[in-house]
Amino acid sequence: MPSTPPGSWAKLKKASARLKKAFLPPRSWVILSQLGGVFLLFVLAVSLGLEDRFSPDGRKALLAGTAFFFGATVGVAEILLRYRDEPFRAASTTPAAAYAFLNGVISLGAFALLLRYPDQILPAVKGDLVLTAFAAGFGGMMVARSKLFNFQGEGGGEYSFGPAIVLDSFLRTLDRKVDRLRSAERHRRVFDKIHVLNLNQPADFNFALDYTQVTLQSYQNLSQAEKLAYAEEIEKYRGETGLPQNLRMLATGFALLNIAGEDNFDQVMADLERSLRPAVPQNSPQ
Amino acid sequence: MDPLKERLSLDWLQEARSRRFVPVRPQRSVSLDPNIEDALMAYGRKLLEGVGEQPKKTVHLHDLLRQLQLPLNDALPVVDFLTERNYLQTIKADPVTLNHDLKLTPKGEELIAR
Asked: Rounded to a whole number, what is the distance in angstroms from the first to the last CA of chain A?
């Protein structure tokens, strides 16, 4: 159980109410909905038959572009899911753009193959360019991620063979690149925000841990499982007495940053600092 | 016990074990909790930048901490971690006062240059 001293719950409740008021929909969700809108417009334009206004070659080009767009979207979605703290910042890096482009090219290749060999690959899409574009856009990625067979090495390690190796290696490289770009920024941000808290007293440390946990109640889309996982992490750091409190709080900061993102993390830390050290009211002259 | 587990493919037991928290005093062979590792790196980056600003990239630990206004208690596990990971080298250890002489390694220089 959290060892929060009496009186702290009132402070926590007040802070939670302030956070709920302060939190706007995160910027990332606004961008995501805009991207989703563009995606839907694309799909609608194709589904409503607007491509019929083009010449046969123009139709093929438009639907090839659609297949490319679908493939690239799958790649971007993968990156967004991979980097939880600032997914859009990760997706806007050059390596991430290269990964999305590679995904698009694979879908484009699948589209060309389906046009050339429909009978051998997928007879159901023969003669239907729209269906071909959809199948190539999403199905191409399925083929690209397939593993033909697994091979067990002498050391017990398992190695996969198939097109997935290419994408996996690319994704690993992307991981390293994005991590390098992001890690220094993350380290500085969390260190600067936590260092000023100066949590040397156990009561302050426990209050800070409870406070970060309370802030999670402000998130409407966070699942119970995620909240529970965070709570477990917090308790783990609370109990790890072999590590100084400031380091444990830094670890908590990283766990929070992964969920909250940078803007909300900054807000939570600023509010936490105010809650830990409330401003002393000035005595007005009599 | 372990060979039997392997024969029965109780992989989930392995997974549960790997989820357990790995405490402080990191060792090269042990993988740390990712957030603890990030915490050590975040603190460590500050120390490495401090050492990097010294003329010969060498410093007494106490002088460095005084300059950065960081407590010794917090810094010691970080220095251990950085030494383990070869970002810092302990030129001369002082087991009594813990005022070690530290030097930035090429790997440490590379890290702070990013």
From this structure: 47
